[in-house]
Specification:
The longest helix is centred in the last third of the chain and has 19 residues. The protein has 9 helices and 11 strands. It has a domain of 173 residues: 2-enoyl-CoA Hydratase, Chain A, domain 1 (Alpha-Beta Complex), CATH 3.90.226. It is of the alpha/beta class and 249 residues long.
Length: 249
């Protein structure tokens, strides 16, 4: 199984476990994330969740070799990106969280990163754009200039820099991100689940209109790059492991 569920009391741990593919998300993994988060949403005995990868990689994002539809009915992209959750979810990141992997972390309520973690949006180096929320969520989680830099340069942030900028809640020693995420989840479970649920719902109402505009802008960008020669060149160069030769259209 590429997605493993582990229940610890009132906490559900969701592990992305496709390390040989750098936890790149295919249809099976998207369905596994969706199933786990449906359980987290629907089981009243669960009061908090944690999504994590392996000790070396959180996720490299979409599996470009599959080119499957990775949306689910309740969760949207990857089973998580457009999900209307009322149970808190923490990302525990070891190693790189790139592209869609970073967008999964941005869709969570808190982020714990080990000193091995890094965050980046390399889509433009493939002739693509970020399609799973980063076009607007990155600028919400980071200073706008930093978000722009990540979106157009392909550069990455390490965990210390991400913490200084307010993206990361806590930095953990290597191999300890999940332990610190568990500690935060346990603190959350000391609160009334009703109070937590209603607090999260209230906070989300503040960004409903922004999200709608953000998704509209994302859809327009997708329409452009789907018809572009640069997208074809970028993906070909990725699989051929060579520098792309951009045409600019």
């Amino acid at each position: 199984m590429s997605v493993i569920q582990e229940q610890h009391g009132r906490i559900l741990i969701i592990r992305l476990d496709r390390e040989n593919k750098r936890n790149a998300i295919d249809r099976t993994m998207a369905e596994g994330i969706d199933e786990a988060l449906n359980r987290l949403d629907d089981d009243p005995a669960l009061w908090a969740g944690i999504i994590t990868g392996t000790t070396t990689i959180f996720s490299a994002g979409t599996d470009l070799s599959e080119r499957a539809d990775l949306r689910t009915e309740r969760g949207g992209e990857y089973g998580i990106i457009r999900r209307r959750r009322s149970t808190p979810l923490i990302a525990a990141v070891e190693g790189p969280a790139l592209g869609g992997g970073f967008e999964i972390a941005l869709a969570c309520d808190a982020l714990i990163a080990s000193r091995t973690a890094s965050f980046g949006l390399p889509e433009t180096r493939r002739g693509l754009v970020a399609t799973s929320g980063a076009l607007f969520r990155a600028a919400r989680a980071l200073p706008p200039n930093i978000a722009r830099e990540l979106l157009i340069s392909g550069r990455t942030l390490d965990s210390d820099r991400a913490y200084q900028l307010g993206l990361v809640n806590e930095v953990a020693d290597a191999g300890c991100a999940l332990d610190q995420a568990m500690a935060l989840a346990e603190d959350i479970c000391l609160s009334s689940p009703m109070s937590v649920r209603e607090s999260l719902r209230a906070l989300r109402t503040l960004t409903v209109d922004e999200d709608a505009l953000g998704w509209q802008a994302t859809e327009r960008a997708i329409e452009v790059f789907l018809e572009s020669d640069d997208m074809k060149e970028g993906i070909s160069a990725f699989f051929e492991k060579r520098p792309p030769q951009w045409l600019g259209h």
